[in-house]
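Forum > Structural Biology > Help requests

Title: Can anyone predict the 3D structure of Cysteine proteinase inhibitor?

Hi all, first post here. I have the sequence for Cysteine proteinase inhibitor but no way to get a structure on my laptop. I'd be grateful if someone could post the structure tokens.
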Amino acid sequence: MAEGSKQSAMEENSNRSTMEDAMRRRQSAIEEAMRTQPSDNEDLKRLVMAEAAVIGSIRDAPGSENDPDVIDVAWFAVSEHNNNNNANAPLEFEKVVKVREQDVSRTVYYLTIEAKDGEAKKLYEAAVYDNWDSKRLMDFWPAED
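Reply #1:
Sure, ran it for you. Structure tokens for Cysteine proteinase inhibitor below:
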């Protein structure tokens, strides 16, 4: 692995860890505020607590495999992987197999993608940060069997 790639991977891991830590702190602050502040509406209090528990957690999104926005994100991931690796034989997107999402300031998609590598169909994992008006490929790797 090239030194620049190692540095980039280390920075991505650090950024992901920092983002997750910030979300956990925010969630804890919301939960603490809800526990300590009086509320006339206990139903509202329970709803906000439940919502705070979801923010930042990674969850499965079954049925999203055919969502046009998710397919667009998957196409982006394969395209960026091909561009970043100057592939002589670029991967060809086939389909989205599985979708997981994480809500942070926008959405991080964790996708399992089927792509053709030459004639062979293979599975890949991708992490893509989608900020609505821009996307960033965070990671792309072969899926475990």
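The chain has a mean pLDDT of 77. Helices lie at 3-36, 42-54, 68-84.
Shout if anything looks off.
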